[in-house]
Amino acid sequence: NRLCLLFIGQPELQRRLAMVVHEALAQRIVVRYHLRGLIRDEVPAYLQHRLRLAGTELPLFDPPAQEALFQPSGGKLRRLNLLAHHCLFAAAADNAQAVTEQHVATARPEVT
């Protein structure tokens, strides 16, 4: 009988499994997968997907804002989501119809 375990974690998990003390465990891992961040061209579709999940079809992020979101996040989903969340707050505070590059600049210090 074999036991199947899923190890899911941050990059720290990879570093720990690379330690000599965990070598026996690391040798027994059959499949490894690393989720990469988004590339620049994937950001608009991802943001639209997230907005659709939230219940809107409105394009709430203008193209310069999408580019400005990609820069500090590097395409990492957690950072992108957090920054986008703060941008939406900044846009709402301005009673804006869409998130602009200025809203991203306003939200950026909250995330970094």
Number of strands: 0
Based on secondary structure, the structural category is mainly alpha
Q: Helix amount, in percent?
A: 55-70%
Largest sheet: none
Oligomeric form: single chain
In terms of DSSP E residues, the strand content is under 5%
Number of helices: 6
In terms of per-residue confidence, which ranges show pLDDT below 50 for 5 or more consecutive residues?
none
Shape: elongated
Residue-averaged pLDDT? 92
**Could you give the order of the helices and strands?**
HHHHHH
**First-last Cα distance:** 47 Å
C-alpha Rg, in Å? 19 Å
Can you describe this structure in just a few lines?
The protein is mainly alpha-helical. It is 55% helix and 0% strand.
Task: Report what the structure shows.
The protein is mainly α. It contains 6 helices and no strands. It has helices at 11-17, 23-27, 43-53, 63-73, 77-93, 101-111. It is elongated, with a radius of gyration of 19 Å. The termini are far apart.
Secondary-structure topology with pairs:
Blueprint: H1 11-17, H2 23-27, H3 43-53, H4 63-73, H5 77-93, H6 101-111
Can you give keywords for this protein?
about 110 residues; elongated
